[in-house]
Amino acid sequence: MHNSRLRATLATGIATLVIGFVGIGVVAAPASAASGRSLPEGSSLYAISCDNDLTNLSVFSIDAATAAATPVGEGTPDSADCAGQAAYNPATSVSYFVAWQFDQETEQSFAILATVDPETGVSLPVSFFSIDGAPTNVDSIAIGNDGAAYAIYDDTLYSLDLATGALTELGDLGDDSFYGFSVDPTTGAFYAVQWNGDVFTIDIATHTATLAADTGLGGDTNYPYSLQIDSNGNFWLEADAYVEDLDGWYSHLWSISGSDLVGSALLSGVITAPEGAFYTESLLLVPGPVVPVIPAEPVVEPAAVVAPVAPQLANTGVDAAPIAAGGALVALLGLALLVPAIRRRATA
After folding, report:
1. pTM of the full predicted structure?
2. Residue 326: which region, alpha, beta or left (left: phi > 0; alpha: psi -120 to 50)?
């Protein structure tokens, strides 16, 4: 379920935040055979754990087709309580995520902006998210194709300073519970998903949320909490679901075609590491390198050789071909007479 259930059972001091990751799992479950969509060539999918049975967050590389998870790097025992929505910055190639902390003394939750290196699993805190200098919580973040960052908290859209974590209010979205937030790299359009499976377009300029589709993942069985969109326009979602065989709530990886948000949901499987399934609310998609398209050189066909056409006279009964030949003979005789004259002129 949502992070509030997890944050209430964990008590890590905010001042002692050291974000790190270690690849461990808790419940044994076999990886499934390939059943889901594939990522665009060169792209990679990751998950950051949020599990109350783990002592710290963990980074995993995810096989998109099977939801099989492979731990990345090592971490430290003291870390944030839970990881939320992650976002890749195409302008700087830096990946960010929301790190949630629960302060037991004040019984309040705070969110911290952090970076993560998906190749090593190493992450670093940037700063508390803040509004007018006061720490605040955040539901999700997204970064546009131009590198501009945004955050959603409750029903409000903010611009986000990635260097300081400072939030600047842009406006009221008119709805809330947007825990998944991402940008379509093919169009630059922003989308957000609610826990009930509804997908909204988010207009940054007008700070409005418009219902785009009901994915069918909401209800009593699946609760989407993280969203990423690949360069093929496919939506990738983490959705909480109860697994009877494991007797608990675990994370399912789904993909949905951007051209059919209503009827194309495809399950890859339960996100499962070699040691077992684990809980996450944070997906991160890192695109592959852009391969420049070199236009093919145009093929130039050689010009066709057109044979001269003999002039045609009016229908007088006289063939024009002999006349043309006689004209050519006269021209040659004239040239022959002209050459000696030019020579004499040159020797005069």
Report:
1. 0.75
2. alpha
Instruction: Quote the CA–CA distance of 310 and 324 in Å, as a whole number.
Output: 8
Domains of the chain plus CATH, in order, are: 3-286 (2.120.10), 309-348 (no CATH)
The rounded distance, in Å, linking the Cα atoms of 87 and 89 is: 7
For 21-63, the DSSP string reads ------B--PPPPS-S--PPTT-EEEEEE--TTSSS--EEEE-
Provide mean pLDDT across the span 4-12. 37
In this structure, are residues 176 and 154 in contact, taking their beta carbons and an 8 Å threshold? Answer: yes
Q: How many Å apart are CA 244 and CA 215, to the nearest integer?
A: 23
Q: In whole angstroms, what is the distance from residue 90 CA to residue 170 CA? A: 22
Cβ atoms 180, 167 nearer than 8 A: no
Long-range contacts of 195-200 (CB under 8 A, 24+ apart): 195/2, 195/223, 195/224, 195/225, 196/223, 197/222, 197/224, 199/235, 199/261, 200/175
51-81 per-position pLDDT tens digit: 766 556 789 999 999 999 999 987 545 567 8
Report angle CA 20, 70, 281 to the nearest 5 degrees: 60
Instruction: Pick the closest to residue 46 from 286, 316, 347 (CA basis).
Output: 286
DSSP 53-110: TSSS--EEEE-TTT-BEEE-S---S---SEEEEEEEETTTTEEEEEEEEEETTTTEEE
pLDDT in tens, 203-260: 999 999 999 999 989 877 789 999 999 999 999 999 999 888 888 889 999 999 999 9
